[in-house]
């Protein structure tokens, strides 16, 4: 018998496939980093944020630099979460 050979008794091929799927999902859940951006979260580019808030990129950069807005990036591209942009807006006192 080959040392690399596995013998399974009492398990159908379909059951083996299902068991492996479950095991792989558990392993991937443990090693997959939790993303800071939810699946349903709307992501905006700098241009979209500037258009939404009606200011220029320099102003957007200042707010990001001061920590008022949180940016996310991939390579040289910068993105913002729409929910965080809306949450950063504060009511004006009258």
Structural class: alpha+beta
Main sheet makeup: 3 strands, antiparallel
Q: Give the uncertain stretches in residue-range form.
A: none
What proportion of the residues form beta strands (DSSP E)? 5-15%
Average pLDDT works out at 84
Helix content: 40-55%
> How many beta-strand elements?
3
Q: What report would you give on this structure?
A:
The protein is an alpha+beta fold. It has a domain at 43-88. It is built from 4 helices and 3 strands. It has helices at 13-31, 46-53, 57-65, 82-88; strands spanning 43-45, 71-74, 77-81. It has a 3-stranded antiparallel beta sheet. A hairpin with a 2-residue loop joins strand 2 and strand 3. The protein is elongated, with a radius of gyration of 24 Å. The N and C termini lie far apart (85 Å). The model has no long low-confidence stretch (mean pLDDT 84).
Question: How is this fold's topology laid out?
Answer:
Layout: H1 13-31, E1 43-45, H2 46-53, H3 57-65, E2 71-74, E3 77-81, H4 82-88
Antiparallel strand pairs: 1-3, 2-3
